[in-house]
Write a structure and sequence with these properties.
Radius of gyration of chain C: 21 Å
Family (chain A): Belongs to the binding-protein-dependent transport system permease family.
Order of helices and strands of chain C: HHHHHHHHH
Number of helices of chain A: 9
CATH architecture of chain A: Orthogonal Bundle
Largest sheet of chain C: none
Number of domains of chain C: 1
Structural class of chain A: mainly alpha
Shape of chain C: elongated
Strand content of chain A: under 5%
CATH architecture of chain C: Orthogonal Bundle
Mean pLDDT of chain A: 92
Low-confidence stretches of chain C: none
Distance between the termini of chain C: 48 Å
GO molecular function (chain A): transmembrane transporter activity
Largest sheet of chain A: none
CATH superfamily of chain C: MetI-like
Structural class of chain C: mainly alpha
Main location (chain A): membrane
Order of helices and strands of chain A: HHHHHHHHH
Keywords (chain A): Amino-acid transport, Cell membrane, Membrane, Transmembrane, Transmembrane helix, Transport
Distance between the termini of chain A: 42 Å
Oligomer: heterotrimer
Chains: A mainly alpha, B alpha/beta, C mainly alpha
Subcellular location (chain A): Cell membrane
Chain lengths: ~210, ~280, ~220
């Protein structure tokens, strides 16, 4: 195992970096898209609510691998050439945004509806009330579940291995078949994933307790 | 104090768990004699490809794998175990075949696997049963005429994880970027969707792909020699001897040439007469 | 259009349905297995038995923070070292069961914790033993709270079986890849078809949970 770290250190480091990079990019964009659809779901407009519902239900019920492979294989044939890393990050973003939308929506719903009414009565527009009164409170509730979504995101980023996205899992497969030391390689890969996910998950549990 | 105790116990037990896992990972497998076991069960389990036309390809109609290697494996099984011997097939990919063999899930690999010095450190090989050479598959009309045309920055070559062709690219076109996909079906799909300029692997496999995919052609000829062998675990001298013996018999009886003709007879760019044994 | 008609020939659809069948079988067995194992682990975690609970907790935390793909590799490539030789179907079932049961353990633990502690005290005061109170009073209430989380976990499980194509599990995803690997004009039709198939299975489960939820409340 030490030999794996010693011989393939640079590959492992590169994979670790790519995994982190794509997780962070996907988190930022899925947070934006997810919050957008969550707001759509709580608007008075029926049209926007239906759009949001369809988006969320579709992407929550299709495997991430199918979405990612779609962007890697189908999109380049008809639209534009995108590489494995990009395809993987887009797939992760879309998939995760559907879950984040659900999380943020339940956060918004847990804010007392009186808050919205009060803000509106004080002359704020619906959007202003959402932006300055409801959302800031909603986000406090949803920080622990969002953290858990990020942990899932890091774990799910292993689909990049299917599309040659140079992430940790991809490098693991390459190293395993090069060194032929399958188990040791995958244990090393596991440790590197735990370095990211384990502290995060303990931190989220601590936050949950504190907020409860 | 309680917190500290918990932290320490967490660290200690995680180290213990790791140790157990590592011990599992490095423990050599005490393999029984494959021939004895095969004779008892009247079965040899072969690892074959299911995504490689002409060698081993899944037939969607009846979920059976068909190809040159499958027919050869059946012929060899009958030579070793007698006419009632059964050949079992397990689908493998370039990245799963070695662990499966070393773990004993399969008895032998017959999956377009080149005999190389590095692999000989890990496994044993039979005599070569097919002589391939590495080549390139490109879109018709592509400016790439040989492997040298790929030796520039920005060129992307597609290959498969665990195949030695990706290592050869590093030798012949060190400046090119190599993308390793998980199997040939994936790699071909990636070539079609423009993820790379060329797909590299052995000419026999590429010939099968060009038959299936009009508009894609082999180019540049073979730039390496790739003798395919049947991989088996080390310390199985009897099995190796039996395999080589069976191979000789299949070749002498003319069965080899019949199987060869059946699969490669009508493939453009393949000269069956040259390959006959 | 012609591509679609060709792609959806009975031979191809039949092959996809065989894949779907494997996906469903693997999912159902893993759901049952992980539900049982997960509940046991979750209760052990909740009741805080000395030595056992911290070890179980650590096991849960390590497994649930690893990518499922790694767990699949561990079972498929690692178990034979211990003397088992799982086929890709059994390796997947085992990997899914272990991985998902750690996720379910967390759901069960927090579900029980969410039940008002006064309930337990009340039940004990009425002469029930701890076990009886747990089984008759606490668990049924916790169950009601857990259903949405459990079902979405089961839906994840069904979707995640697609990852096992990497160890050549002949599931829906794998069979689709075999079909479009043989003819590139089938790529788009195959993707649409498997997306629809996965959607139907997963969405049906979520509708089921919603009606269950309504009936219980």
């Amino acid at each position: 195992m030490i030999a794996i770290f010693h011989n393939y250190g640079s590959l492992l480091l590169q994979g670790f970096g790519q995994t982190l990079l794509c997780s962070v990019i996907a988190l930022i964009f899925s947070l934006i898209i997810g919050s957008m659809f969550a707001i759509f779901e709580t608007t008075p407009s029926k049209f926007l609510r239906v759009i949001a519902r369809i988006y969320i239900e579709v992407f929550r019920n299709i495997p991430l691998l199918v979405i990612t492979m779609f962007f890697f294989v189908v999109i380049p044939m008809f639209v534009a050439k995108i590489n494995g890393f990009t395809a993987g990050t887009i797939g992760l973003t879309i998939y995760t945004s559907a879950f984040i939308a659900e999380t943020v929506r339940s956060g918004i719903n847990s804010v007392d509806p009186g808050q919205m009414e009060g803000a509106r009565a004080n002359g704020l527009s619906w959007w202003q009330a959402m932006r300055y009164v409801v959302l800031p409170q909603a986000f406090r509730y949803v920080i622990p579940p969002l953290g858990n979504q990020f942990i899932n995101l890091v774990k799910n980023s292993s689909v990049l291995a299917f599309v040659a996205g140079f992430d940790l899992m991809y490098q693991g497969n390459v190293i395993a078949s090069d060194s032929l030391n399958t188990m040791s390689t995958y244990i090393c890969i596991g440790i590197l994933y735990l370095i990211i996910t384990l502290p995060l998950s303990y931190w989220m549990r601590y936050l949950e307790k504190k907020l409860a | 104090m309680k917190k500290l105790f918990r932290l320490v116990s967490v660290i200690v037990s995680s180290l213990a768990l790791l140790l157990v896992l590592t011990a599992c990972g490095s423990k050599p497998l005490a393999e029984q004699n494959v021939v004895t076991r095969a004779k008892q069960s009247n079965t040899i389990t072969w690892g074959v490809k299911a995504d490689t036309k002409l060698f081993g390809l899944m037939d969607v109609r009846n979920s059976q794998i068909k190809g040159f290697e499958v027919d050869m494996a059946k012929a060899l099984t009958k030579q070793i175990l007698g006419p009632k011997g059964k050949a079992d097939f397990v689908q493998v990919t370039s990245s799963t075949r070695m662990p499966l063999l070393k773990n004993g899930n399969i008895d032998a690999i017959m999956a377009t696997m080149t005999i190389t010095p590095e692999r000989l450190k890990q496994v044993d090989f039979s005599r070569s049963y097919f002589d391939a050479g590495q080549s390139l598959l490109v879109k018709e009309g592509s400016p790439i005429k040989s492997v040298k045309d790929l030796n520039h920055k920005g060129a992307t070559v597609l290959g498969v994880v665990g195949s030695n062709s990706v290592q050869n690219v590093a030798k012949f076109a060190p400046k090119a970027r190599v993308l390793q996909l998980s199997d040939y079906a994936q790699a071909m799909t990636a070539l079609k969707s423009g993820q790379g300029e060329a797909l590299t692997t052995d000419n026999g496999i590429l010939a099968g792909m060009s038959v299936e995919n009009p508009g894609y052609v082999l180019t540049g000829g073979a730039f390496t020699k790739e003798p395919y062998g049947i991989a088996i675990n080390k310390d199985q001298p009897q099995f190796k001897h039996d395999l080589n013996h069976a191979l000789t018999k299949v070749e002498r009886s003319g069965q080899y040439n019949r199987i060869l003709k059946k699969w490669f007879g009508n493939v453009p760019g393949m000269n069956v007469k040259e390959m006959e044994r | 259009m012609k591509d679609f008609i060709d792609a959806y020939s009975w031979i191809n659809i039949h092959y996809l349905l065989q894949g779907l069948w494997i996906t469903v079988i693997v999912s159902v067995v893993s759901i049952l297995g992980s539900y049982i194992l997960g509940s046991i682990l979750g209760i052990i975690r909740y009741v805080n038995i000395k030595v056992v609970s911290p070890i179980v907790g650590l096991f849960i935390d390590i497994i649930r923070n690893l990518p499922l793909l790694l767990i699949i590799f561990f079972t498929y490539f690692g178990l034979p070292n211990l003397g088992f030789r799982p086929s890709s179907v059994w390796a997947t079932i085992l990997a899914m069961t272990v991985f998902e049961s750690t996720m379910i353990a967390e759901i069960v633990r927090s579900g029980i914790a969410a039940v008002d502690p006064g309930q337990m005290e009340g039940a004990r005061a009425n002469g029930l033993t701890y076990g009886q109170a747990m089984y008759h009073v606490i668990l049924p209430q916790a169950m009601k709270k857990m259903i949405p989380a459990l079902v979405s976990q089961f839906i994840s499980l069904i979707k995640d079986t697609s990852l096992a194509t990497i160890i050549v599990l002949p599931d829906l995803m794998h069979n689709a890849q075999i079909v479009y690997g043989q003819n590139s004009t089938y790529i788009l039709p195959m993707f649409l078809m498997i997306a629809i198939m996965y959607f139907i299975v997963c969405y049906a489960l979520s509708l089921l949970s919603r009606s269950l939820d309504r009936r219980m409340s």
